[in-house]
Structures are given as structure tokens and as C-alpha cells.
Design goal:
Elements lengths: L1 E5 L6 H10 L3 E6 L4 H8 L5 E3 L3 H10 L4 E4 L1 H6 L4 H9 L2 E4 H12 L2 E6 L4 H15 L4 E3 L10 E2 L6 E5 L14 E4 L13 H14 L2 E5 H6 L8 E4 L12 H16 L7 H8 L10 E4 L2 E4 L4 H14 L3 E6 L3 H7 L12 E4 L16 H5 L8 E3 L4 H12 L3 E6 L6 H9 L2
Parallel strand pairs: 1-2, 1-4, 2-3, 4-5, 6-9, 6-10, 7-9, 10-11, 11-12, 14-18, 15-16, 15-18, 16-17
Antiparallel strand pairs: 7-8, 13-14
Helix pairs in contact: 7-10, 10-11
């Protein structure tokens, strides 16, 4: 079967393309721009990738080898509901669906049991920790994770595996495509307001996801939000009085416990729990999750208030002199979380606020400027509006030289603060 992936350079579509190739499918794809990750896919044997998502390009691919299934991300239909590729697929009567429908098909055909990691925050790290544990124990595993790993590809398919670990995203109701053997819920805080108009809508989606899962493990705090009780299919856990995990960052220690408790309690990994804890304490981290760029300078993907709080807790474990460069992710999100900025950056030594990273925006909404957002802070005197320029570069260098810990908080992709930091400071 020939699968064409639109947006193949993305953090969800790219790994799925790699998984599909390893599972025996013929794979081609397109993207609007070239990237290092597309180069990586080409080096892995995915050479039929077109830059430019045009009707001409996809028609050429189809003429050479008929496409059976066109797979795209939610962003495609949101940004380009009448994209040239979708129009061509309709004319050529090619099956076209979001990525989750195809991934569900792939997992079902493989006969592997799904371990789905879901939640507002922490799901990428938790999914990566799951992969780390299986790899260190030498247990076969298929998986898809939405970030670069220092110990493997973002996606991999092993025909010998019994389980498939997936970072299951709630955006656009994507995670409701699946019926997991085990669901690990990392934490629930209202997000994706354009998809879920109310907090109740958002939480109800998680309730539905849990009902679709054979087994679920989640924190007591989240179970209370969803009005769930302990049952044969739902395990409710809480932090231990004496935490055996030695990872930096409270969020990392919580994520590690969720993985070990979930896999151990369901006998997915039948090894002594102390052995699993020791392995997890060696977890090397992953890209853009409090990732060290150079000494004293870190990059973090945090883009919701709760994620930012978790990031700052980790920073304060390492230093009391924390400096933040903040690039909010999407203007539409800022309109919903304005009031949460009041005390979000308390105890931060200095805050440099750069313009929001724009993606899938509502053209009717006013673009909130850094100055407008800073006004919402109770300690606005520590903050200043900045740009990604030489002035900010010099300021960051001065802070690092003075021994401050600088963390760049950015959830954007191409052209983001994260890319700018790597270009200017990476070893």
C-alpha cells in the first residue's frame, strides 16, 4: 500500500512516515519547506519527498505509483481547507484522512497493544521515558514521540513488539481515535480553547478517552477533576511521601513515577520495581524539555501556564538567579490566558518578552503585543519587551557570564525563539 504524507517534516507526521516504512508500506510525502528533519528522513530511505505542496507535485507522484492513502495533520485542513493536495485527492478518489485514522489502522493491523500517553502537559517526556525504559531493558517496542530523542528516532516500528507506545494528543480530538490497552494520563489543565469552548468540554473528552481505554492510570488530582473513582480499570495514584526518583525537576519525577507505576502495576514489564526506578533515574532527557544548549542556557517547550510553572520549578532547583526569555505560542491562546500572567513569573530575576509565535490564528483577533501582555503581570518591573536581535543576544550572554541561569521558553517551530537560540549559542 502506498501512503502519501502531507507535512512530512512535522513532529507527528514525520515519525509516522518512518514507522510506516518500517512496517512495510510504500511511503512518499511533501512539505512546504525543507528542514534538517526531512534530511534525516531521506537518510533513512524516505527519498520520495517533494518540497512544495502543489497539485503538480502530488499528481507526479501518483502517476509514477498510485497513492492509496493520503495522510495529513489537523493543521492542513485548518490552514488550507482547500489545499491543492486535498483537491487533487478528491478528484482522483484517493482516500484522505487525518494521521490518527491511519495510525489506528496500522496499530490494529500489527496486532500490537496500545500504550497511549495523554494529558495537557508532560506527555512527550512521559512517552520518551516509556521508550527509554523498554530500550534499557531490551524489550521490543514500537513507538511514536513528538520530540527528538538522544537514544532513538522519534518513531520506530518493531514487528516483534507486543506494545506500541504513542503520545496521544487531545488537539482536535485526535486521541479519541484510539482504544488503548493502557492510558497514562500525565495531567489535565484546560487548553486548546478553540477546539473545546469550555473547560467542561475539555474534561469530558478525557473522560471519553478513559472510557475507551481498557486500563487507565492517572493522578488523584486529575481523577477528582473528572469525578472518577478507583475501579478495576482505573488506577488512581499519588506522589509517595519519600520520592525515590532523583531526576532534576518535580515534573520529571512525577512523569517517571507515572510510567513505572503504570507499567509495573499492569504487569506490562515484569521486573522488580526498584530496578525500573534505577533505570528511570538515568533518563537522559530529550529535545526542548529543559534542554541544555550551553552551560547556563536552556530551552524549554513550555507554552501553557501550568507547563511554564513546571519549567520554572525545575530552573529554581538549579539556581536562585533565573532569567527567562519568553515567546508565547499562538496569539489565540494569549486571549484566553491573559489573567494567568499575573503571578506566573514571580521570583524571576529578569524577563525578556518577545512577540508571540503565530500559527493557525483567528484573523479577527487583535495581535497582543509583549507590552500588552507584560501589563498583566503583578511584577511587571522585571520585564521588558524584546526582539530576536543582537541586543537580546548580548543580554543573554551577559546573564550567562554573570552566572545566571537563562531559560528560553518557546513552543514554536520554524523561525521560533528555540531555533534562534540554537543558531546563536549551540556548541
Amino acid at each position: 500500500m502506498h501512503i502519501f504524507f502531507s507535512g512530512i517534516g512535522g513532529t507527528a507526521i514525520g515519525p509516522l512516515a518512518l514507522i510506516s516504512q518500517q512496517a512495510g508500506y510504500t511511503v512518499s510525502g511533501s512539505d512546504k519547506q525543507d528542514s534538517n528533519y526531512i534530511d534525516h528522513l531521506r537518510n533513512k530511505g524516505l527519498t520520495d519527498i517533494r518540497i512544495g505542496q502543489t497539485q503538480e507535485n502530488i499528481a507526479h507522484v501518483h502517476a509514477q505509483n498510485p497513492i492509496d492513502w493520503f495522510v495529513y495533520s489537523s493543521a492542513v485542513t485548518m490552514e488550507q481547507p482547500n489545499s491543492e493536495e486535498l483537491v487533487f485527492c478528491k478528484m482522483a478518489k484517493i482516500k484522505a484522512t487525518k494521521r490518527d485514522e491511519f495510525l489506528n489502522h496500522l496499530i490494529f493491523k500489527s496486532g500490537q497493544k496500545l500504550i497511549a500517553i495523554a494529558g495537557t502537559h508532560g506527555k512527550t517526556t512521559t512517552a520518551a521515558m516509556t521508550v527509554w525504559l523498554f530500550k534499557e531493558l531490551g524489550i521490543p517496542l514500537s513507538y511514536s514521540v513528538g520530540a527528538k530523542l538522544p537514544f532513538g528516532d522519534m518513531g520506530s516500528f518493531d514487528p516483534e513488539a507486543e506494545f506500541f507506545a504513542l503520545e496521544a494528543d487531545e488537539f482536535d480530538h485526535n486521541f479519541l481515535s484510539f482504544e488503548p490497552f493502557l492510558a497514562l494520563i500525565t495531567g489535565i489543565d484546560y487548553d486548546h480553547h478553540e477546539i473545546y469552548p469550555t473547560r467542561q468540554n475539555y474534561e469530558h473528552a478525557f473522560v471519553k478517552f478513559i472510557r475507551q481505554s481498557m486500563h487507565t492510570v492517572l493522578w488523584r488530582e486529575d481523577a477528582a477533576k473528572l469525578e472518577l473513582k478507583q475501579t478495576k480499570s482505573v488506577d488512581i495514584i499519588q506522589p509517595p511521601r519519600k520520592n525515590p526518583y532523583r531526576l532534576v525537576g518535580e515534573v520529571n519525577r512525577s512523569n517517571a513515577q507515572l510510567v513505572v507505576d503504570g507499567l509495573y502495576s499492569k504487569k506490562i514489564i515484569q521486573r522488580p520495581q526498584n530496578e525500573l526506578i534505577q533505570i528511570m533515574n538515568q533518563f537522559p532527557g530529550l529535545s526542548r524539555r529543559f534542554e541544555r544548549i550551553v552551560d547556563g542556557l536552556y530551552s524549554d517547550y513550555a507554552h501553557t501556564p501550568e507547563k511554564i510553572r513546571g519549567c520554572l520549578k525545575t530552573a529554581f532547583e538549579l539556581s536562585q538567579n533565573v532569567v527567562v526569555v519568553h515567546e508565547p505560542l499562538t496569539n489565540r491562546r494569549q486571549h484566553f490566558i491573559l489573567d494567568e500572567y499575573k503571578d506566573l513569573f514571580l521570583n524571576v530575576k529578569k524577563l525578556y518578552w518577545v512577540p508571540s509565535y503565530l500559527a493557525r490564528e483567528d484573523p479577527r483577533q487583535h495581535i497582543l503585543t509583549p507590552d500588552e501582555l507584560i501589563k498583566r503581570m503583578s511584577n511587571k518591573e522585571i520585564a521588558e519587551a524584546s526582539l530576536l536581535d543582537d541586543t537580546l543576544k548580548d543580554q543573554i550572554q551577559e546573564h550567562v557570564a554573570a552566572g545566571d541561569l537563562v531559560v528560553c521558553i518557546s513552543g514554536g517551530g520554524g523561525g521560533s525563539l528555540d531555533e534562534w537560540v540554537r543558531r546563536n549559542y549551540a556548541d
